[in-house]
Specification:
Number of strands: 4
Radius of gyration: 15 Å
Strand order of the largest sheet: 1-2-3-4
Shape: elongated
Number of helices: 3
Number of domains: 1
């Protein structure tokens, strides 16, 4: 089991994960996974959100609706990956550090 699998398993067990809603309030959510997109370079945090009564927000079919938050990445041949990762974790603390 690699570092990412261990971190994901830990994150999925946390019950205090909250994300901002459209009105600016924080709602409980359940993180599902991280997705990578290469054009343009982006990390997407995928999660289910709950309403004020702690019920999942559902899609048209009655399944928990998936939400995502995109984090754009600037990469070039001179990118310091360690610094980039530290900067992303600091900037995106709400989504990446429950």
């Amino acid at each position: 089991m690699g570092l990412l699998a261990a971190a994901s398993a830990t994150s999925l067990t946390l019950s205090n994960y909250h994300v901002p809603s459209l009105d600016g309030k924080f709602l409980p959510a359940v993180p599902l996974h991280l997705a990578l997109k290469f054009k343009p370079p982006t990390i997407a945090v995928v999660y289910n959100m709950k309403d004020g009564a702690s019920r999942f927000i559902l899609d048209k079919r009655g399944n928990p609706k998936k939400f995502h938050h995109g984090i754009q990445i600037e990469l070039n041949e001179h990118t310091n990956l360690r610094k980039m990762c530290e900067d992303i974790c600091l900037k995106e603390v709400v989504y990446l550090n429950p």
